[in-house]
C-alpha cells in the first residue's frame, strides 16, 4: 500500500509541475472536465491502474470522470501518468 501511495503522490506532483498550455488551471470546472489523463500508448498495467485510481479519486471529489487518453489534447490540461519507458 505504501508503494502505491508513493507512486500515486508522485503522479500528482508531476501533474502539478507540468507547464500548462490550456487556459483553465482547473481539472473540473462548472461540472465539465477541463483535463485529460494521458497514459502513453505503451503504458504498463501498473500505470493503467494508477490512471484509473486517479480518475476514481477525481470523480469521487468532483462528480466528473476524466478521459484517459494516449495523447494530450490541445484544449485541456494534461495529467501525465507513467515512467520513462511509457
Strand fraction equals 15-25%
Task: Bin the helical content.
Answer: 25-40%
Give the strand order, joined by hyphens, for the main sheet: 4-3-5
- Rounded to an integer in angstroms, the radius of gyration calculated over CA atoms is 12 Å
Largest sheet: 3 strands, parallel
Specify the number of helices. Answer: 2
Sequence of secondary-structure elements: HEEEHEE
**Low-confidence segments, ≥5 residues, pLDDT <50?**
15-22
Measured between the Cα atoms of the first and last residue, the distance is 23 Å
Mean pLDDT: 81
Class derived from helix and strand content: alpha/beta
DSSP strand tally: 5
- Specify the overall morphology: flat
Description of the molecule:
There is one protein chain. The chain is an alpha/beta fold. The chain contains two helices and five strands. The protein has helices at 2-17, 45-62; strands at residues 28-29, 32-33, 35-39, 67-69, 77-81. A three-stranded parallel beta sheet has the order 4-3-5. The protein has a two-stranded antiparallel sheet with strand order 1-2. The longest helix is centred in the middle third of the chain and has 18 residues, at 45-62. The protein is flat and about 35 Å long. The two termini are 23 Å apart.
Amino acid at each position: 500500500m505504501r508503494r502505491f501511495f508513493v507512486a500515486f503522490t508522485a503522479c500528482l506532483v508531476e501533474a502539478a509541475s507540468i507547464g500548462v498550455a490550456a487556459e483553465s488551471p482547473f481539472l473540473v470546472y462548472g461540472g465539465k472536465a477541463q483535463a485529460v489523463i494521458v497514459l502513453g500508448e505503451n503504458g504498463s498495467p501498473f500505470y493503467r491502474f494508477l490512471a484509473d485510481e486517479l480518475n476514481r479519486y477525481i470523480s469521487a471529489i468532483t462528480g466528473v470522470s476524466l478521459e484517459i487518453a494516449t495523447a494530450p489534447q490541445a484544449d485541456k490540461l494534461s495529467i501525465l501518468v507513467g515512467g520513462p519507458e511509457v
